[in-house]
Amino acid sequence: MLRNAFAYITRKWPKSLLLFAIILLMGTLSLIGLSMKGATQKASSESLGSITNSFSMQINRRTNPGTPRGAGNLRGEDIEKISQVEGITSSIKRINAIADILDHEIIETEETLQNQSPERAKQFKNTLMVTGVNDSSKEDKFVSGAYKLVQGEHLTDKDKNQILMHEDLAKKNGLKVGDKVRLKSNLYDADNEKGANETVEVTIKGLFSGKNQAPLTYAQELYEDTLISDLDTAAKLYGNTVQTATYEDATFFAKGDQDLDQLIEKIKALDIPWNYFDLVKSSSNYPALQKSISSMFQVSDYLFIGSLIFASLLLTLLLVLWLNARRREVGILLALGLSKVQIAGQFVAELVMISIPAFLLSYGVAGLLAKAVGDTVLKNVTSGIAKQMAQESSAANLGGGAEAESFSKTLTDLHMDIQPNQLLVIVLVGGLLLILVSILSSQWLLHKKPKELLVDVE
Protein backbone atom coordinates (compact mmCIF):
# COMPACT_ATOMS: atom_id res chain seq x y z
CA MET A 1 0.00 0.00 0.00
CA LEU A 2 2.76 2.44 0.94
CA ARG A 3 4.78 1.44 -2.13
CA ASN A 4 1.76 2.04 -4.37
CA ALA A 5 1.08 5.38 -2.67
CA PHE A 6 4.68 6.54 -3.16
CA ALA A 7 4.70 5.35 -6.76
CA TYR A 8 1.52 7.29 -7.52
CA ILE A 9 2.60 10.63 -6.00
CA THR A 10 5.96 10.49 -7.81
CA ARG A 11 4.38 9.50 -11.11
CA LYS A 12 1.70 12.20 -10.84
CA TRP A 13 4.14 14.83 -9.52
CA PRO A 14 2.29 17.92 -10.92
CA LYS A 15 -0.82 17.00 -8.93
CA SER A 16 1.30 16.12 -5.91
CA LEU A 17 3.07 19.46 -6.16
CA LEU A 18 -0.23 21.34 -6.19
CA LEU A 19 -1.45 19.44 -3.11
CA PHE A 20 1.91 20.13 -1.45
CA ALA A 21 1.55 23.88 -2.13
CA ILE A 22 -1.99 24.00 -0.69
CA ILE A 23 -0.98 22.11 2.47
CA LEU A 24 2.14 24.29 2.80
CA LEU A 25 -0.02 27.42 2.59
CA MET A 26 -2.48 26.01 5.12
CA GLY A 27 0.30 25.08 7.52
CA THR A 28 2.07 28.43 7.17
CA LEU A 29 -1.02 30.57 7.70
CA SER A 30 -2.36 28.50 10.58
CA LEU A 31 1.07 28.54 12.27
CA ILE A 32 1.23 32.32 11.91
CA GLY A 33 -2.30 32.52 13.35
CA LEU A 34 -1.30 30.46 16.40
CA SER A 35 1.89 32.49 16.85
CA MET A 36 -0.06 35.75 16.59
CA LYS A 37 -2.50 34.56 19.24
CA GLY A 38 0.32 33.58 21.57
CA ALA A 39 2.15 36.87 21.02
CA THR A 40 -1.06 38.82 21.63
CA GLN A 41 -1.69 36.91 24.86
CA LYS A 42 1.83 37.71 26.05
CA ALA A 43 1.53 41.37 25.05
CA SER A 44 -1.85 41.56 26.78
CA SER A 45 -0.38 40.24 30.04
CA GLU A 46 2.55 42.65 29.84
CA SER A 47 0.43 45.67 28.89
CA LEU A 48 -2.49 45.20 31.25
CA GLY A 49 -0.62 43.55 34.12
CA SER A 50 -2.09 44.69 37.43
CA ILE A 51 -4.70 46.81 35.61
CA THR A 52 -7.09 43.87 35.49
CA ASN A 53 -7.42 43.61 39.29
CA SER A 54 -7.74 47.29 40.10
CA PHE A 55 -10.30 50.09 39.90
CA SER A 56 -10.20 53.84 40.31
CA MET A 57 -12.28 56.47 42.05
CA GLN A 58 -12.94 59.49 39.82
CA ILE A 59 -15.25 62.46 39.78
CA ASN A 60 -18.62 62.07 38.05
CA ARG A 61 -18.40 64.88 35.51
CA ARG A 62 -22.15 64.88 34.98
CA THR A 63 -22.72 66.09 38.54
CA ASN A 64 -19.27 67.20 39.69
CA PRO A 65 -17.26 69.71 37.61
CA GLY A 66 -14.25 69.24 39.87
CA THR A 67 -11.80 72.02 40.67
CA PRO A 68 -11.89 75.42 38.90
CA ARG A 69 -9.43 73.99 36.36
CA GLY A 70 -11.51 70.82 35.96
CA ALA A 71 -9.27 68.49 37.94
CA GLY A 72 -10.50 65.92 40.45
CA ASN A 73 -11.64 66.91 43.94
CA LEU A 74 -11.60 63.66 45.88
CA ARG A 75 -11.32 63.89 49.65
CA GLY A 76 -8.48 62.12 51.42
CA GLU A 77 -10.84 60.78 54.09
CA ASP A 78 -12.99 59.04 51.44
CA ILE A 79 -9.91 57.46 49.88
CA GLU A 80 -8.87 56.22 53.32
CA LYS A 81 -12.31 54.66 53.92
CA ILE A 82 -12.03 52.63 50.74
CA SER A 83 -8.43 51.62 51.50
CA GLN A 84 -9.62 50.00 54.75
CA VAL A 85 -12.15 47.72 53.04
CA GLU A 86 -11.28 44.03 53.22
CA GLY A 87 -9.98 42.82 49.85
CA ILE A 88 -8.06 46.03 49.07
CA THR A 89 -4.29 45.44 49.18
CA SER A 90 -2.97 48.92 48.31
CA SER A 91 -3.92 52.23 46.73
CA ILE A 92 -2.37 54.93 44.57
CA LYS A 93 -3.38 58.54 45.19
CA ARG A 94 -2.67 61.45 42.85
CA ILE A 95 -2.64 65.20 43.41
CA ASN A 96 -2.48 67.48 40.37
CA ALA A 97 -0.82 70.87 40.68
CA ILE A 98 1.16 73.36 38.64
CA ALA A 99 4.31 75.15 39.75
CA ASP A 100 6.96 77.51 38.45
CA ILE A 101 10.49 76.13 38.28
CA LEU A 102 12.87 78.81 39.56
CA ASP A 103 16.19 79.67 37.87
CA HIS A 104 15.53 77.19 35.07
CA GLU A 105 13.60 77.11 31.78
CA ILE A 106 10.81 74.89 30.53
CA ILE A 107 10.71 73.38 27.03
CA GLU A 108 8.71 75.07 24.28
CA THR A 109 7.96 73.96 20.72
CA GLU A 110 6.89 75.91 17.65
CA GLU A 111 3.40 74.55 18.21
CA THR A 112 3.18 75.73 21.84
CA LEU A 113 4.73 79.12 21.09
CA GLN A 114 2.12 79.79 18.39
CA ASN A 115 -0.67 79.28 20.94
CA GLN A 116 0.91 81.47 23.60
CA SER A 117 -0.60 84.91 24.17
CA PRO A 118 1.50 87.70 25.76
CA GLU A 119 -0.58 87.37 28.94
CA ARG A 120 -0.07 83.62 29.15
CA ALA A 121 3.63 84.01 28.43
CA LYS A 122 3.89 86.36 31.40
CA GLN A 123 1.84 84.25 33.81
CA PHE A 124 3.07 80.77 32.87
CA LYS A 125 6.54 81.39 31.42
CA ASN A 126 8.28 78.74 33.52
CA THR A 127 5.28 76.72 34.66
CA LEU A 128 5.31 72.92 34.86
CA MET A 129 2.58 70.37 35.49
CA VAL A 130 3.13 68.46 38.74
CA THR A 131 1.58 65.09 39.55
CA GLY A 132 1.98 64.06 43.17
CA VAL A 133 1.78 60.32 43.77
CA ASN A 134 2.60 57.91 46.58
CA ASP A 135 4.09 55.25 44.26
CA SER A 136 5.21 56.42 40.84
CA SER A 137 5.82 52.87 39.56
CA LYS A 138 2.03 52.34 39.60
CA GLU A 139 1.12 55.80 38.30
CA ASP A 140 -1.08 55.54 35.20
CA LYS A 141 1.40 57.10 32.79
CA PHE A 142 4.16 54.69 33.78
CA VAL A 143 1.77 51.72 33.73
CA SER A 144 0.54 52.62 30.25
CA GLY A 145 4.09 53.01 28.95
CA ALA A 146 3.70 56.72 28.14
CA TYR A 147 6.53 57.36 30.61
CA LYS A 148 9.55 55.13 31.21
CA LEU A 149 12.03 55.53 34.06
CA VAL A 150 15.53 55.68 32.54
CA GLN A 151 17.66 56.80 35.51
CA GLY A 152 17.35 56.77 39.28
CA GLU A 153 14.50 55.25 41.27
CA HIS A 154 10.73 55.48 41.49
CA LEU A 155 9.02 57.54 44.19
CA THR A 156 7.51 55.75 47.20
CA ASP A 157 5.14 56.79 49.96
CA LYS A 158 8.15 57.45 52.23
CA ASP A 159 9.58 60.17 49.96
CA LYS A 160 9.33 63.90 50.69
CA ASN A 161 10.59 66.76 48.55
CA GLN A 162 11.52 64.35 45.75
CA ILE A 163 10.67 64.49 42.04
CA LEU A 164 11.06 62.61 38.79
CA MET A 165 11.99 64.87 35.85
CA HIS A 166 11.89 64.31 32.11
CA GLU A 167 15.37 63.60 30.76
CA ASP A 168 15.07 66.31 28.07
CA LEU A 169 14.13 68.99 30.61
CA ALA A 170 17.06 67.92 32.77
CA LYS A 171 19.41 68.01 29.78
CA LYS A 172 18.28 71.49 28.74
CA ASN A 173 19.00 72.84 32.22
CA GLY A 174 22.16 70.83 32.89
CA LEU A 175 20.53 68.83 35.69
CA LYS A 176 21.09 65.25 36.82
CA VAL A 177 19.84 62.76 39.40
CA GLY A 178 20.63 64.07 42.88
CA ASP A 179 20.48 67.77 41.92
CA LYS A 180 18.10 70.11 43.72
CA VAL A 181 15.65 72.56 42.13
CA ARG A 182 13.12 74.99 43.58
CA LEU A 183 9.42 74.93 42.78
CA LYS A 184 7.11 77.84 43.52
CA SER A 185 3.32 78.11 43.68
CA ASN A 186 1.81 79.87 40.67
CA LEU A 187 -0.49 82.69 41.80
CA TYR A 188 -2.32 82.71 38.45
CA ASP A 189 -3.33 79.05 38.71
CA ALA A 190 -7.13 78.79 39.02
CA ASP A 191 -6.74 75.76 41.30
CA ASN A 192 -4.55 77.72 43.73
CA GLU A 193 -7.69 78.81 45.56
CA LYS A 194 -5.86 79.65 48.78
CA GLY A 195 -3.49 81.96 46.94
CA ALA A 196 -0.56 79.91 48.26
CA ASN A 197 2.88 81.39 47.64
CA GLU A 198 5.02 78.46 48.71
CA THR A 199 8.55 77.63 47.58
CA VAL A 200 9.64 74.00 47.87
CA GLU A 201 13.17 72.73 47.30
CA VAL A 202 13.10 69.25 45.80
CA THR A 203 15.70 66.65 44.85
CA ILE A 204 15.68 64.86 41.49
CA LYS A 205 15.33 61.18 42.37
CA GLY A 206 14.99 59.91 38.82
CA LEU A 207 14.65 60.78 35.14
CA PHE A 208 12.00 59.47 32.75
CA SER A 209 11.51 59.45 28.99
CA GLY A 210 8.46 59.68 26.73
CA LYS A 211 7.23 61.67 23.75
CA ASN A 212 3.80 63.12 22.99
CA GLN A 213 2.02 61.35 20.15
CA ALA A 214 -1.09 63.53 19.90
CA PRO A 215 -1.34 67.21 18.92
CA LEU A 216 -1.14 69.66 21.83
CA THR A 217 -1.82 73.31 22.57
CA TYR A 218 0.27 74.47 25.52
CA ALA A 219 3.76 73.72 26.82
CA GLN A 220 2.31 72.24 30.00
CA GLU A 221 0.86 69.38 27.93
CA LEU A 222 4.37 68.33 26.89
CA TYR A 223 5.74 65.25 28.61
CA GLU A 224 8.98 67.22 28.98
CA ASP A 225 7.22 69.88 31.07
CA THR A 226 5.72 67.46 33.57
CA LEU A 227 7.15 66.56 36.97
CA ILE A 228 6.18 63.56 39.08
CA SER A 229 6.50 64.39 42.79
CA ASP A 230 5.71 62.89 46.16
CA LEU A 231 2.29 63.74 47.62
CA ASP A 232 3.65 66.13 50.24
CA THR A 233 5.34 68.34 47.63
CA ALA A 234 2.25 68.60 45.41
CA ALA A 235 0.04 69.38 48.42
CA LYS A 236 2.39 72.13 49.68
CA LEU A 237 2.24 74.00 46.38
CA TYR A 238 -1.44 74.74 47.11
CA GLY A 239 -0.88 75.43 50.80
CA ASN A 240 -2.23 72.04 51.86
CA THR A 241 -1.04 68.94 53.65
CA VAL A 242 -1.54 65.35 52.54
CA GLN A 243 -4.55 65.23 54.88
CA THR A 244 -6.23 68.44 53.67
CA ALA A 245 -5.38 68.24 49.95
CA THR A 246 -7.92 67.42 47.25
CA TYR A 247 -6.96 64.49 45.05
CA GLU A 248 -7.20 64.07 41.29
CA ASP A 249 -8.16 60.39 41.60
CA ALA A 250 -7.21 57.20 43.40
CA THR A 251 -6.57 53.66 42.17
CA PHE A 252 -7.22 50.67 44.41
CA PHE A 253 -5.65 47.24 43.95
CA ALA A 254 -7.56 44.13 44.97
CA LYS A 255 -6.42 40.65 45.91
CA GLY A 256 -5.86 38.40 42.92
CA ASP A 257 -8.84 36.16 43.67
CA GLN A 258 -11.17 39.07 44.49
CA ASP A 259 -14.31 39.59 42.40
CA LEU A 260 -14.06 43.27 41.41
CA ASP A 261 -17.77 43.68 40.75
CA GLN A 262 -18.69 42.40 44.20
CA LEU A 263 -15.97 44.51 45.82
CA ILE A 264 -17.17 47.67 44.05
CA GLU A 265 -20.75 47.04 45.19
CA LYS A 266 -19.49 46.58 48.74
CA ILE A 267 -17.58 49.88 48.59
CA LYS A 268 -20.59 51.77 47.23
CA ALA A 269 -22.32 51.04 50.54
CA LEU A 270 -19.79 53.27 52.34
CA ASP A 271 -20.80 56.72 53.58
CA ILE A 272 -19.42 58.64 50.60
CA PRO A 273 -21.39 61.12 48.41
CA TRP A 274 -21.49 58.76 45.42
CA ASN A 275 -23.60 61.10 43.30
CA TYR A 276 -20.40 63.14 42.85
CA PHE A 277 -18.00 60.25 42.25
CA ASP A 278 -17.64 57.07 40.17
CA LEU A 279 -15.83 53.78 40.66
CA VAL A 280 -14.38 52.59 37.36
CA LYS A 281 -12.47 49.40 36.55
CA SER A 282 -8.95 50.42 35.56
CA SER A 283 -9.18 48.40 32.36
CA SER A 284 -11.91 50.82 31.23
CA ASN A 285 -9.29 53.59 31.21
CA TYR A 286 -7.52 51.84 28.33
CA PRO A 287 -10.31 51.27 25.77
CA ALA A 288 -8.00 51.44 22.75
CA LEU A 289 -5.63 48.90 24.29
CA GLN A 290 -8.48 46.50 24.98
CA LYS A 291 -9.89 46.97 21.47
CA SER A 292 -6.51 46.35 19.84
CA ILE A 293 -5.98 43.20 21.93
CA SER A 294 -9.45 41.79 21.17
CA SER A 295 -9.06 42.65 17.47
CA MET A 296 -5.70 40.85 17.28
CA PHE A 297 -7.22 37.78 18.97
CA GLN A 298 -10.04 37.87 16.42
CA VAL A 299 -7.66 38.17 13.45
CA SER A 300 -5.47 35.33 14.74
CA ASP A 301 -8.54 33.09 15.12
CA TYR A 302 -9.73 33.97 11.63
CA LEU A 303 -6.27 33.24 10.22
CA PHE A 304 -5.97 29.88 11.99
CA ILE A 305 -9.50 28.58 11.47
CA GLY A 306 -9.98 30.22 8.08
CA SER A 307 -6.83 28.69 6.59
CA LEU A 308 -7.83 25.21 7.79
CA ILE A 309 -11.38 25.49 6.43
CA PHE A 310 -10.34 27.02 3.10
CA ALA A 311 -7.60 24.44 2.50
CA SER A 312 -9.91 21.57 3.49
CA LEU A 313 -12.63 22.68 1.08
CA LEU A 314 -10.16 23.21 -1.75
CA LEU A 315 -8.49 19.86 -1.16
CA THR A 316 -11.86 18.10 -1.03
CA LEU A 317 -12.84 19.59 -4.39
CA LEU A 318 -9.53 18.69 -6.03
CA LEU A 319 -9.47 15.16 -4.62
CA VAL A 320 -13.03 14.48 -5.75
CA LEU A 321 -12.11 15.56 -9.29
CA TRP A 322 -8.85 13.61 -9.33
CA LEU A 323 -10.32 10.47 -7.77
CA ASN A 324 -13.01 10.54 -10.43
CA ALA A 325 -10.21 10.13 -12.96
CA ARG A 326 -8.98 7.06 -11.03
CA ARG A 327 -12.20 5.04 -11.40
CA ARG A 328 -10.54 2.40 -13.60
CA GLU A 329 -7.65 2.00 -11.15
CA VAL A 330 -10.05 1.59 -8.21
CA GLY A 331 -12.22 -0.84 -10.17
CA ILE A 332 -9.22 -3.05 -11.01
CA LEU A 333 -7.97 -3.00 -7.41
CA LEU A 334 -11.41 -4.00 -6.14
CA ALA A 335 -11.63 -6.74 -8.78
CA LEU A 336 -8.23 -8.08 -7.66
CA GLY A 337 -9.64 -8.53 -4.17
CA LEU A 338 -8.30 -5.47 -2.35
CA SER A 339 -10.67 -4.26 0.31
CA LYS A 340 -12.17 -0.79 0.32
CA VAL A 341 -10.29 -0.10 3.55
CA GLN A 342 -6.97 -0.90 1.86
CA ILE A 343 -7.74 1.36 -1.09
CA ALA A 344 -8.89 4.18 1.19
CA GLY A 345 -5.71 3.61 3.20
CA GLN A 346 -3.65 4.14 0.05
CA PHE A 347 -5.40 7.45 -0.62
CA VAL A 348 -4.74 8.55 2.96
CA ALA A 349 -1.11 7.42 2.71
CA GLU A 350 -0.64 9.48 -0.45
CA LEU A 351 -1.93 12.59 1.28
CA VAL A 352 0.14 11.93 4.42
CA MET A 353 3.33 11.48 2.36
CA ILE A 354 2.71 14.85 0.74
CA SER A 355 1.63 16.61 3.93
CA ILE A 356 4.58 15.63 6.19
CA PRO A 357 7.25 17.55 4.22
CA ALA A 358 4.72 20.35 3.61
CA PHE A 359 4.09 20.78 7.34
CA LEU A 360 7.82 20.65 8.13
CA LEU A 361 8.58 23.27 5.48
CA SER A 362 5.70 25.45 6.73
CA TYR A 363 7.51 25.70 10.09
CA GLY A 364 10.45 27.41 8.38
CA VAL A 365 8.34 29.55 6.06
CA ALA A 366 6.11 30.71 8.92
CA GLY A 367 9.21 31.59 10.94
CA LEU A 368 10.44 33.81 8.11
CA LEU A 369 7.08 35.51 7.50
CA ALA A 370 5.62 35.69 11.02
CA LYS A 371 7.10 39.04 12.08
CA ALA A 372 6.25 40.78 8.80
CA VAL A 373 2.67 39.47 8.82
CA GLY A 374 2.24 40.27 12.53
CA ASP A 375 3.54 43.82 12.11
CA THR A 376 1.33 44.43 9.07
CA VAL A 377 -1.82 43.12 10.77
CA LEU A 378 -1.04 45.05 13.97
CA LYS A 379 -0.46 48.26 12.02
CA ASN A 380 -3.77 47.92 10.16
CA VAL A 381 -5.70 47.05 13.32
CA THR A 382 -4.24 49.81 15.49
CA SER A 383 -4.40 52.54 12.85
CA GLY A 384 -8.17 52.18 12.60
CA ILE A 385 -8.59 52.08 16.37
CA ALA A 386 -6.25 55.05 16.82
CA LYS A 387 -8.35 57.18 14.46
CA GLN A 388 -11.52 56.22 16.30
CA MET A 389 -9.97 56.96 19.70
CA ALA A 390 -8.59 60.29 18.46
CA GLN A 391 -12.10 61.34 17.44
CA GLU A 392 -13.53 60.25 20.81
CA SER A 393 -10.68 61.95 22.66
CA SER A 394 -11.27 65.17 20.74
CA ALA A 395 -15.02 65.00 21.41
CA ALA A 396 -14.34 64.49 25.12
CA ASN A 397 -11.90 67.42 25.07
CA LEU A 398 -9.11 65.37 26.66
CA GLY A 399 -6.33 67.49 25.19
CA GLY A 400 -2.93 66.24 24.09
CA GLY A 401 -1.27 65.26 27.35
CA ALA A 402 -0.30 61.86 28.70
CA GLU A 403 -3.77 61.27 30.19
CA ALA A 404 -5.34 61.48 26.73
CA GLU A 405 -2.68 59.24 25.25
CA SER A 406 -3.28 56.59 27.91
CA PHE A 407 -6.90 56.64 26.71
CA SER A 408 -5.70 56.14 23.12
CA LYS A 409 -2.86 53.70 23.83
CA THR A 410 -2.89 50.57 21.67
CA LEU A 411 -0.63 47.56 21.28
CA THR A 412 2.60 48.74 19.68
CA ASP A 413 4.59 45.56 19.19
CA LEU A 414 4.18 41.79 18.91
CA HIS A 415 7.06 39.39 19.53
CA MET A 416 6.14 36.77 16.96
CA ASP A 417 7.97 33.45 17.08
CA ILE A 418 6.99 29.98 15.93
CA GLN A 419 7.22 27.33 18.63
CA PRO A 420 7.63 23.55 18.08
CA ASN A 421 4.50 22.89 20.16
CA GLN A 422 2.55 25.07 17.70
CA LEU A 423 3.82 22.91 14.83
CA LEU A 424 2.65 19.85 16.75
CA VAL A 425 -0.84 21.36 17.04
CA ILE A 426 -0.92 22.06 13.30
CA VAL A 427 0.31 18.56 12.43
CA LEU A 428 -2.33 16.94 14.66
CA VAL A 429 -5.25 19.17 13.69
CA GLY A 430 -4.23 19.50 10.05
CA GLY A 431 -3.45 15.79 9.80
CA LEU A 432 -6.86 14.80 11.12
CA LEU A 433 -8.53 17.19 8.69
CA LEU A 434 -6.54 15.79 5.76
CA ILE A 435 -7.42 12.20 6.69
CA LEU A 436 -11.08 13.20 6.97
CA VAL A 437 -10.91 15.01 3.63
CA SER A 438 -9.33 11.98 1.97
CA ILE A 439 -11.95 9.58 3.33
CA LEU A 440 -14.90 11.84 2.49
CA SER A 441 -13.71 12.56 -1.04
CA SER A 442 -13.26 8.85 -1.81
CA GLN A 443 -16.48 7.62 -0.23
CA TRP A 444 -18.64 7.95 -3.33
CA LEU A 445 -16.07 6.03 -5.37
CA LEU A 446 -15.57 3.18 -2.93
CA HIS A 447 -19.30 2.57 -2.58
CA LYS A 448 -19.48 1.41 -6.18
CA LYS A 449 -18.87 -2.15 -7.34
CA PRO A 450 -15.88 -2.98 -9.60
CA LYS A 451 -18.15 -3.68 -12.57
CA GLU A 452 -19.88 -0.30 -12.23
CA LEU A 453 -16.55 1.52 -12.15
CA LEU A 454 -15.16 -0.30 -15.17
CA VAL A 455 -18.40 0.15 -17.14
CA ASP A 456 -18.36 3.89 -16.30
CA VAL A 457 -14.85 4.17 -17.73
CA GLU A 458 -15.87 2.44 -20.94
UniProtKB/TrEMBL annotation:
It comes from Streptococcus sp. CP1998. Keywords: Cell membrane, Membrane, Transmembrane, Transmembrane helix. Residues 304-449 form the ABC3 transporter permease C-terminal domain. The keyword Transferase does not apply. The chain crosses the membrane at residues 302-323, 343-366, 423-446. Residues 17-269 form the MacB-like periplasmic core domain. Belongs to the ABC-4 integral membrane protein family. LolC/E subfamily. Its main location: membrane. GO terms for cellular component: plasma membrane protein complex. This is ABC transporter permease.
